């Protein structure tokens, strides 16, 4: 993972490019990311930084975390996130410094990670794109039922991992190689072409595209 930013999904809108074409974009509000700790190979076995963003009531901060923030000299945020860096990716930002949208530029490819919208308990048709049974020809109350799931006497059981009804959504999802249409430094906004995971108001992590990095 490379150095990135933690932001909050604000919603979707559209912008018009120089050719007058409408481009759908997701607006990500990126408040300054405050560096709360440095991770070094000597103390942690790897290199990276820990950041916090936003704010949290003092009454909601545990004594241990209050001491952690006080040691770094930063205000308590709504959470802590880490970015691991390779040894060749440059010096680590200083503790107490801030990272903002200037980390990215227009046209850059990025990966965006977030928690997808929770959809509760869903059946196989919606969850795994199963086909429905006949809606006519005598079928009764089994239109969206999964059907048989076993294999006779051998093996005489259902294998673990069988696709069935169950909890859907609310899981970590990464959408790769999205394009940054505009970096608005004045309003701390990133406009990213296309959709990103999660509901409006959810935290997302934006990092440089790993595929583009591997291509050099």
Overview of the structural elements:
The protein is mostly beta strands. The chain has helices at about 40-45, 65-70, 125-130, 210-215; strands at about 5-15, 20-30, 35-40, 50, 80-85, 100, 110-115, 120, 165-170, 170-185, 190-195, 205-210. Strand 10 and strand 11 form a beta hairpin. The model has no long low-confidence stretch (mean pLDDT about 95).
What's the arrangement of strands in the largest beta sheet?
A: 1-2-11-10-7-12
What gyration radius follows from the Cα positions, in whole Å?
Answer: 23 Å
Q: What fraction of residues sit in β-strands?
A: 35-45%
Order of SSEs, N→C? EEEHEHEEEEHEEEEH
Please describe the biggest sheet, giving its number of strands, its sense, and whether it closes into a barrel: 6 strands, antiparallel, barrel
Low-confidence residue ranges:
none
Report, as a whole number of angstroms, the end-to-end distance. Answer: 15 Å
Please work out how many helical segments DSSP would assign: 4
Mean pLDDT: 94
Helix content: 10-25%
């Amino acid at each position: 993972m490379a150095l990135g930013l933690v932001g909050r999904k604000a919603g979707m809108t559209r912008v018009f490019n120089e050719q007058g074409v409408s481009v759908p974009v997701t607006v990500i509000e990126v408040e300054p990311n405050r560096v709360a700790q440095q991770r070094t190979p000597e103390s942690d076995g790897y290199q990276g930084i820990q950041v916090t963003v936003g704010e949290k009531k003092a009454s909601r901060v545990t004594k241990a975390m209050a001491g952690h923030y006080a040691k770094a000299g930063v205000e308590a945020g709504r959470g802590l996130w880490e970015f691991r860096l390779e040894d060749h990716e440059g010096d680590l930002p200083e503790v107490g410094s801030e990272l903002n949208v200037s980390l990215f530029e227009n046209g850059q490819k990025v990966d965006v990670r977030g928690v997808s919208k929770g959809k509760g308990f869903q059946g196989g048709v919606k969850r795994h794109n199963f086909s429905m049974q006949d809606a006519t020809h005598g079928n009764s109350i089994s239109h969206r039922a999964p059907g048989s799931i076993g294999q006779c006497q051998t093996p005489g059981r259902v294998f673990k991992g069988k696709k069935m009804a169950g909890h859907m959504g609310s899981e970590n999802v990464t959408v790769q190689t999205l394009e940054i249409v505009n970096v608005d430094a004045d309003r701390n906004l990133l406009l990213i072409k296309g959709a990103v995971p999660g509901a409006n108001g959810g935290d997302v992590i934006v990092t440089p595209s790993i595929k583009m990095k591997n291509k050099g």
